[in-house]
Design a protein that fits this description.
By secondary structure, this protein is of the alpha+beta class. It contains 15 helices and 17 strands. A hairpin with a 5-residue loop joins strand 1 and strand 2.
């Protein structure tokens, strides 16, 4: 039911109940009045007869009959003593009458002094209106036949009822008008609230009636419109801020005064996991780290919420994580909330120096295989009669150096293209689980040779929209690096330990030898070697991990490396989904 219908039904019900009560009350009052008229008339007759009675003298029947001639012809008189015996009856002989002590009107008269009843008389064989009244030792009962004339006298008229019935249509019309007047405002207000809950308010097509309630509804709608616009602005600004934080090169996390996390960007999770023994997506564990005790002490000094500062309290200090240096900064807001930012301050080399170093390294790396190839060919040309087996050995060495040179040119071209022309790489949905499975098939022989096992714990449906070749090169270079340098009987583990709408967090490690701590900050540098000659001996180009880092950054992520406490090398990186 609509509010208008409910309002009409409620008011009409109240009016109807009130009307029924008034009609019933008026009817009962009129019935009582008409009965009182008859009773008063009969009481007058009884009082006349009572003057003829004397408690000490027997009833004089003759005098009673003489008086009865002056009364209405249909009036019946009965005189009853205290025991209920009829001592005089105008319509019959007293001796033939039963004891009247149990007659309703007589019983009431003996107890209360007066009583009345309408009932059938077996003596006269018709209904009578009886009135009994006690006078000393006697009770006088007078009665009139309850015929049509007396019934009409006692019957109420219906003028008041007809008046109510004629008034009812007018009342209904007024109720319809009143309920419609108020119901339209309430219905429009209800429609506005329903639209607000669904976020589909059409302000231009919502209008309230011109009434006090309508003015209130109009004011509420205008205030809500202003509040709605303010909330939309806040949401837009919040989306801008979150997008800014998402691509912010530094790690940032925002907390409530009670240290509950409000937001943490991917870089913060990446950096903070360098401090954990095991990768975790639970940021609340940072309060258990000894490395952040200075931040905790600083926050305790400024934990008073609502305190206003001319300048926001800020505290920062450097934090060494292996060979990587992070700058930790805490900033307290006026409401007691705070933010923590982590930034990598270990990058000191400039782009020009990197390119110069790369050019020098490329020149050096190209010179070595070319010199070897030239030497082998000159030897072959100078000794035409060389033993076939030795000749075959020289040709194989020259071919290996040619392959190494081809791989070097391929890797240099790939890393240069990622640096200078990233837009040339096409993007498509790529299944990471399948990539790792394909690489395992490619290195099946090497895996068996080194007695290694690979745990591919990536979700079977984990997809990244990116470049297949670059994503393949990430996991291929990591697995190839582990097989080449980690040793035998190792286990390689790959898993996605956290997934958000925008990023997935990957943990890759092996259980091999690991790398001395002093080499960790340089592993992603181009042509960097942990031991001189290792890359050349094993046929590598020295660009594998550099390609990995650039491919990860191409996909909107970042990568870090550390030695595991249980042994081996661990890479933590993110990829934009």
């Amino acid at each position: 039911m609509s509010y208008r219908s409910k309002l009409f039904a409620n008011i009409f019900t109240v009016f109807l109940v009130f009307t029924v009560i008034v009609v019933v009350f008026q009817h009962r009052r009129e019935v009582t009045y008409r009965r009182d008229v008859v009773e008063n008339r009969l009481c007058g007759y009884a009082d006349i007869y009572a003057k003829l009675l004397n408690d000490t003298v027997a009833v004089d029947s003759q005098r009673m009959k003489d008086v009865s001639r002056l009364m209405p012809a249909d009036l019946r008189l009965t005189v009853i003593d205290r025991e209920g015996n009829v001592v005089y009856e105008s319509a019959a002989q007293p001796q033939s009458m039963d004891n009247h002590q149990n007659r309703p009107e007589v019983r009431q008269a003996m107890k209360q002094g007066e009583g009345w009843d309408i009932r059938y008389s077996s003596t006269e064989s018709k209904e009578y209106f009886y009135l009994a009244k006690r006078y000393g030792a006697y009770t006088i009962r007078v009665s009139l036949p309850y015929d049509v004339s007396l019934q009409n006298l006692l019957k109420t008229d219906n003028i008041f009822l007809w008046f109510i019935l004629l008034l009812l249509p007018l009342v209904i019309f007024m109720l319809v008008y009143i309920s419609g007047h108020f119901g339209k405002s309430i219905a429009m207000l209800k429609f506005f609230v329903s639209s607000a809950e669904r976020g589909l308010i059409d302000y231009d097509h919502i209008s309230f009636p011109r009434s006090e309630l309508g003015e209130i509804g109009e004011t509420i709608m205008q205030k809500y419109k202003e509040l709605d616009e303010s909330n939309r602005n806040i949401v837009r600004e919040r989306e801008k801020l979150i997008r800014h934080f998402l691509y912010f090169k530094e790690g940032i996390a925002i907390f409530t005064p009670t240290r509950d996390l409000v937001y943490a960007n991917p870089h913060f999770l990446q950096y903070i996991n360098l401090l954990f023994d095991h990768p975790s997506a639970d940021v609340s564990k940072i309060w258990q780290l000894d490395a952040l005790k200075p931040v905790i002490e600083f926050l305790q000094l400024h934990r008073e919420a609502g305190k206003s500062y001319d300048e926001a309290p800020v505290y920062s200090y450097p934090l060494a994580v292996g060979r990587q240096i992070l700058n930790v900064q805490a900033l307290v807001y006026n409401d007691g909330g705070f933010e923590i930012t982590l930034s990598d301050i270990t990058e000191t080399e400039k782009t020009i120096q990197l390119k110069q170093k790369m050019s020098n390294n490329i020149t050096h790396e190209l010179r070595t295989p070319l010199s070897s190839i030239r030497g082998y060919l000159e030897t072959l040309l100078a000794h035409q009669d060389m033993d076939p087996a030795r000749r075959q050995h020289f040709l194989k060495q020259a071919n290996d150096q040619t392959l190494r040179l081809t791989n070097l040119i391929r890797d240099v071209a790939l890393i240069t293209r990622v640096d200078e022309a990233p837009r040339t790489f096409e993007r498509e949905p790529v299944n990471l689980h399948k990539i790792v499975s394909d690489i395992c098939e490619e290195f099946h022989g090497a895996i068996e040779q080194h007695h290694a096992t690979i745990d591919n714990e990536l979700q079977p449906d984990l997809q990244v929209k990116g470049n297949y070749s670059l994503l393949y090169s990430i996991f291929r270079n990591l697995i190839e690096n582990s097989l080449a340098y980690a040793g035998d009987d190792i286990r390689i583990h790959v898993e996605c330990y956290r997934q958000e709408q925008q990023l997935c967090f990957i943990d890759y490690y092996d259980t091999g030898k690991g790398v001395p701590e002093e080499h960790l900050p340089h592993l992603f540098e181009r042509f960097y070697r942990v031991s001189q000659g290792r890359t050349r001996d094993d046929g590598g180009t020295g660009l594998g991990l550099s390609i990995v880092r650039n491919a990860v950054r191409f996909h909107g992520g970042d990568i870090s490396v550390r030695n595991r406490k249980g042994g081996g090398l661990e890479f933590l990186f993110t990829l934009s989904i």
